[in-house]
Amino acid sequence: MKGEVYTIINPLKFMTNYYIKQKLVNYGFPEEAVSINLITKEEMPIEIELYFKISEIGNKFYDKFNGKSFGLGSYYKLNIKKGKSDKVNEIHKNKEIKYIHSYSSWIYTHYAIKKDEEGLILINPIQKEMQKKMISHIISKISNSYIKGQNIINFTFPISVYDKRTLLQVYAYELREAPYILNKVYFLSDPIEKLKVMTSFLIGQLYLSVLRIKPFNPLLGETYQAKISNLNCYFEQTKINPPTTNIYCFDTDNLYRIHGYISIYTKVGINNVKVLKSGNLYIDFFNGNKYKIFYPSYYIGGITIGKRNFNVTNTALILDLTNRLVSYINFPGAKDEKNTYNRPDFFKGKLISINEVKIDYKGAKHLIVEEDTIPLAEFNGEWSRDLIFGDKTYWRRREENLAKMYEMDYILKSDSSLRNDLKLYNENKIEEADKALNEYENIQLNDTLLRNKGSQNDKDKIIINNINNE
Question: What is the pTM of this model?
Fold first, then answer.
């Protein structure tokens, strides 16, 4: 029996092969009866071809969904035509940014997730060898009182223990799910549903944050530009201590923008490091909603002896500033009594109306003041794999949700990708790269001393002027 081809000519931008197939199955269409071809521009569908092997099934699809809802809300209405698409797959003209490491899979290839542990356990043998080098280096510097009072993120290690990205490039990489998630938020109308999906925006960054090695410290004024699918992103290092990065991203269809800054604070223990990702980060949707993000802390244990482990700790908040709602996320790990499987990556949370929010910028223990508030929704999950509200999964770790990254048409000379030490390191010219890294660090140190001296001179002038005025 001859099949039929239908084309969805106004697909929503978060529609993937997986999404469409799951919807069709949910509506009673057999999975094996249809093949799907996304006609895409920068991974976003501009048209979608569906080939039905049995024409009766194709006709049923057309009658059921042409001009009608294909999901929740009026935004999901489809416009369908019979026949093949007349569009051609558009290939991004810019160079794709690729890394030698598959960072998105590190939580499974470099770490083991075991019951009752304090965090994800590092099992990669190469990294264990790097850990030994770091130990001897740290002990040497501590004995010389070299790192006293320093933020560990600014501390210089031998180049062989560094990641092959700068911190700015790490921030960009963490946003690889943003186009898929934020486009979906834009087309939702219910504030509660929007906040549920916004919660997945934060969770979707966490497993991409898992670092087994330290990224390069950005220099003051250093920048980074990248296009993540249809999301244009710009980063600039605006402060050294604490390391502070200003961020501005917008999508090409002007649906939303991400803006603000992130500062990194670290607290070093005898055998652990606690990292706080602080700052003010906002996401504005141009159809009205505005959100503010407060990130959780990161814990790295076993930095000198024992098992190296990584975990997300404390709490996080997503504030809906338009509707005065909050998603409150707690990361208790394996110790929580509601953690059925005793997994270290367990989290739980709730959506409530905002009464009062207390922000502890130093400890990252963000608090909400409740006055007998009944939660609007409750959720839980494991940040390495899923987010569940009730019996519905709102986010699951999937490679197909990761947008590709591309270079911009024009790159500033201050761009991270142009750093000589990083380029040499990626070419495996270790000695030359190490020398270049130390040159950069010395320039940074001298600049810092000059700025501090200039700041002190300004203070002295103010004091002298005050005395003269008196």
Answer: 0.84
